[in-house]
């Protein structure tokens, strides 16, 4: 990436300099990526400008590398500071980098990493984590493909890589990416796009993560509404559903902005992927072809429901983050509940269908504040975290009243914006919005 381009994109993100020894508000990732689509491979240079906002001197940095969970997928070539190689060690998916000098509070350091990702085929379609970094005959799914800074809480938080759920947790950062791809390949990412031929440049500020989906088969449909540009990237066999999908995107974004708070970006993109699972990223999400193919001309289908679910994640996961391994209900329970809220507003006659089809008879095997390690299969995880989370939030709304409930969630969104919240934060803020005793409700759902 040329210095001129870096400064131009840095200005777009509100950064005075792309590299500085004075700490910026949050980390900055800069990627230069070459995609070899036919070989299912990408080569990447990753520069991370890391501010020390912990208040304590730091002698090392921890990156989480989910791609390293499968042997042969992630190949790290080098880690450098100012062109000089530095020491690093591996422990599973944890990459610990020893800094050449102690990083003092309110200062920043620039790390350069070079690596290759050999994207595996989608073989374990039942795993969320496996499906988000895989290739099929239709697309290259690049979610959680790069070394991601671990959260810092009086030390680096080493989030374990689990086979169930979404084994990720990250603070927000600013992202700049320049991607070179084959001329016939569409590269879909989050953020504002500057495309010139086969070079795609994305700028995404205050993001939880940066993902890419690439395919030579995509057909794009785009519209602008309310200051946001919405884009849907469909496979040709489902292009006829682009209009209803765009309508659902706009409706969901409008609803969640009204009841929680503002959407943080100027673009929102959806990309269809092969397989059964959909996945959220900042400014972008995927919807599985099985969800899209379920559309039946009515609101009673997975395309409408799952699209609303994934749009919800832009608020609960993207803006208000959580540790998705330790307390996944804080985003997945909210996203399931927001499916219901979508139907309540846009198709109230179908809310009972939603309860009967999605929730049914709830038989949760674990308390709501369980972690992913407490589960051995996805079905039990979905019931205990997604469905039980939605039922709890609906019970809480009935218990304290809709007005107090809505005011509480707006406050939670405001206070939790661009942070990682916990279940304790949830109940601490709730106290400010109701005098109703919710201890019995809490005891029913939480350990």
Structural account:
- By secondary structure, the chain is of the alpha+beta class.
- It has 2 domains: 3-216, Sandwich (Immunoglobulin-like), CATH 2.60.40; 262-447, Orthogonal Bundle (Neutral Protease, domain 2).
- The protein is 28% helix and 30% strand.
- It has helices at residues 3-12, 128-131, 242-259, 289-292, 302-312, 329-346, 351-359, 378-400, 402-416, 423-430, 439-445; strands at 28-36, 41-51, 58-64, 74-81, 84-85, 88-91, 94-103, 108-118, 133-135, 140-142, 148-149, 173-180, 186-189, 192-196, 199-207, 212-215, 219-225, 228-234, 267-273, 279-281, 284-288, 320-322, 419-421.
- The strands form 5 sheets. The chain has an 8-stranded mixed beta sheet, with helices on one face. Strands 17-18-19-21-20 form a 5-stranded mixed beta sheet. Strands 6-7-3-11 form a 4-stranded antiparallel beta sheet, with no helix packed on it.
- β9 (133-135) and β10 (140-142) form a beta hairpin.
- The longest helix has 23 residues, at 378-400.
- The chain starts with a helix and ends with a helix.
- Mean pLDDT is 93; it is low at 1-20.
